[in-house]
Amino acid sequence: MLTRAGVEFEAVAAKVDEDAIKSALLADGAKPRDIADALAEAKARKIAAKNPGAIVLGSDQVLDFNGTLLSKPKNPDEALFQLKSLRSNRHHLLSAAVIYDDAKPVWRHVGQVRLYMRDASDGWLEDYVARNWDSIRHSVGAYKLEEEGVRLFTRIEGDHFNVLGMPLLEVLSYLSLRGTLSS
Asked: How many domains in the chain?
C-alpha cells in the first residue's frame, strides 16, 4: 500500500510473539481495539529500538466477532469453521498503526470496518476454502476482500484500506502534516 502511495520505505519484519501478547491482554480483559494497538506498538517499538533516529511504522489487524478475537486459521478446517461462524453475521476488522520517531511513540490510530457476511451455503464455503487456502491462510477470518472473498459479503462500512490491514489515509495525513511527505 505504501509503495502504491509513492512512499519510500524499508520493510523490516518485527519478530514479536504475537500469540503471547494477545493471550496476556485477553487474560487482562483487554478489548480487541486495544489488542490491535498493542500489537502494532510492539512491532514499531522492536524495530525503533534497533534504529535510533528512524521513523518506524508498526501495524497490525485483528478481527472482533461479538467480542471474540479471531486469528489466522491454522488449517483448512479452522478456516471453514471461522467462515461458518461469521456467515449471516456482522464482524469488525480493527487495523492499528503506531509511529515511533527516535525510539519514542509519537502517533497512533486504530481504524475500524464493519463487515456483513452473506448466508453462503456449506458447500460453497467448502469449495471457497479449497480454492483459496494458499491465500486465505494468511488472513484473519479466512478471506481476502481483494480476491474472491469479496463474494462473501453483502455490505462493508468503513475505509477499504483498513480492510487491507492499515489505516493508510490517516498514516499518510500524519506523515504529510509532520513534513515527512511532501504535499
From this structure: 1
- The upper half-sphere exposure of residue 161, i.e. CA atoms within 13 Å in the direction of its Cβ, equals 16
pLDDT mean over 111-132 = 98
What was the pLDDT predicted at 169?
Answer: 96
**Cα 172 to Cα 16, 36, 54, 94, 166, distances in angstroms:** 25, 19, 17, 18, 11
Enclosing domain of residue 92:
18-177
CA dist 55 and 173 (Å) reads 15
Provide the angle, in degrees to the nearest 10, between the axes of the packed helices 32-50 and 18-27: 140
Q: What would the grid cell of residue 120 be?
A: 453462503
Please report which confidence band the pLDDT of residue 29 belongs to, taking 50, 70 and 90 as the band edges: very high
pLDDT score at 156: 96
Catalytic positions are: 60
In a domain, residue 9? The reply is no
| Cα 38 from Cα 18, distance rounded (Å) | 10
The answer to whether residue 86 sits within a structural domain is: yes
Sign of CA dihedral 128, 130, 131, 137: positive
Please state the rounded mean pLDDT for residues 3-23: 92
Reported pTM: 0.91
- Is residue 118 one of the residues assigned to a domain? yes
Grid-cell match 471474540, residue found: 68
